[in-house]
């Protein structure tokens, strides 16, 4: 494999396209987890009680790169079967509590008020709510009744990056407006103890619960912003893009079962990532006039240890340049869509600088990218 190099007129054209839209400021970011924190060993012992026939696969838990995870229910809840109705009640209760926490904290950190939010983009994949979660949240918090709302469902682990980019597009479309992006996934609620499939045991080794909120704004005229406004941005979204591989719906997703979502997780995923990740990533960067070696860091969603190792190998990334992904996997597990934003928050709070590649993957099978300037 060769690193991407760009020069000549082609670069100038690509770079101009990258800057043709206003960069979107990330004013603040907040994250939250439910109250039950478990060690990986705790989860393994529980999983072996429920799925004793997979004892030979217990090394999955030790090799996952996870030390602790947060879940919204006590461990005993996951030992028992539950109906769709029971799962939905628990999902809506905890999802709204977490969304309220990250919405309030993100808006407060930005120095704004809830009434200043012009649009809300809300993403999830692990439960259902009609009215949507954003509508239910508006009955709890003092948002303007005229706020525009965009609920998103179905993007899976990629929804944190994809949803952030959709929210950024809304901010670009109306310069000066403020957009709140919210995402929540309670993956633990999808554990079904009556499902003897290996995919259920594998998912039990990885998944956890979390939520994140991000406040975004595009200035009407960035060059003329007051100094105070210029320093309020925590980061900027410079570019975004995505890729869907045809005929890969079997790789990842949900099957709708009688008592909940059934996990779809194919053993083909590591090979697809090994074969395709470098090509698709470099194509995205080329479109935006960015060289791989110019990136200061990589904020990859850790679907699991194997995903991060594949990224390091395929893109020749040094471990220190993807360290935040490993740290979030260790401390929180795979929280689906929220995970990428935990990683972004960690990079911001660590004082990292320069252009970073934020990336996540989800059903489709799809990849989602954003170039973030910290």
Structure overview:
With 374 residues, the protein is an alpha+beta fold. 36% of the residues lie in helices and 24% in strands. It has two domains: 196 residues, Peroxisomal Thiolase, Chain A, domain 1, CATH 3.40.47.10; 138 residues, Peroxisomal Thiolase, Chain A, domain 1, CATH 3.40.47.10. β4, α5 and β5 form a beta-alpha-beta unit. The longest helix is centred in the N-terminal third of the chain and has 26 residues. It is globular and about 60 Å long. 46% of the residues are buried.
What is the fold's blueprint, element by element?
Blueprint: H1 9-18, E1 24-32, E2 36-39, H2 40-50, H3 59-62, E3 68-71, H4 84-109, E4 119-124, H5 133-138, E5 148-153, H6 159-173, E6 178-186, H7 198-204, E7 209-217, H8 227-230, E8 235-244, E9 252-257, E10 260-265, H9 269-287, E11 297-300, H10 305-315, H11 323-332, H12 339-349, E12 355-362, E13 366-373
Helix pairs in contact: 9-10, 11-12
């Amino acid at each position: 494999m060769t690193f991407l190099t760009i020069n000549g007129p082609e670069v100038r054209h690509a770079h101009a396209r990258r800057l043709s839209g206003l960069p979107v400021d990330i004013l603040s970011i907040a994250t939250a987890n439910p109250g039950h924190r478990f060690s990986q060993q705790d989860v393994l012992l529980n999983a072996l009680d429920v799925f004793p026939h997979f004892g030979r696969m217990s090394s999955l838990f030790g090799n996952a790169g996870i030390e602790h995870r947060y879940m919204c229910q006590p461990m005993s809840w996951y030992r028992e079967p539950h109906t769709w109705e029971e799962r939905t009640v628990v999902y809506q209760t905890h999802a709204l509590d977490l969304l309220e926490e990250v919405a309030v904290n993100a808006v407060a950190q930005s120095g704004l008020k809830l009434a200043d939010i012009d649009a809300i983009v809300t993403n999830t994949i692990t439960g259902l709510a009609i009215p949507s979660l954003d509508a239910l949240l508006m009955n709890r918090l003092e948002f303007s009744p005229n706020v525009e709302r965009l609920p998103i469902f179905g993007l899976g682990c990629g929804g944190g990056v994809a949803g952030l980019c959709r929210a950024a597009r809304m901010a670009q479309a109306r310069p000066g407006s403020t957009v709140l992006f919210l995402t929540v996934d309670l993956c633990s609620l999808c554990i079904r103890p009556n499902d003897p499939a290996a995919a259920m045991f594998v998912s039990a080794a990885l998944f956890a619960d979390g939520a994140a909120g991000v406040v975004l704004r595009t200035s009407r005229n960035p060059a003329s912003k007051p100094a105070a406004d210029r320093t309020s941005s925590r980061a900027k979204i410079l570019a975004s893009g995505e890729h869907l591989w045809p005929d890969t719906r079997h790789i990842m997703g949900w099957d709708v079962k009688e008592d909940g979502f059934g996990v779809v997780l194919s053993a083909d995923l590591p090979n697809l990532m090994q074969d395709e990740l470098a090509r698709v990533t470099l194509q995205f960067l080329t479109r935006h006039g960015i060289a791989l070696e110019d990136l200061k860091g990589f904020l990859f969603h850790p679907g699991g240890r194997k995903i991060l190792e594949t990224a390091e190998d395929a893109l020749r990334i040094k471990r220190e340049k993807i360290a935040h992904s490993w740290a979030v996997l260790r401390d929180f597990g795979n929280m689906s869509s929220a995970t990428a934003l935990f990683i972004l928050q960690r990079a911001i709070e660590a004082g990292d600088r320069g252009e970073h590649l934020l990336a996540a993957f989800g059903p489709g099978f799809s990849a989602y990218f954003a170039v973030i300037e910290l």
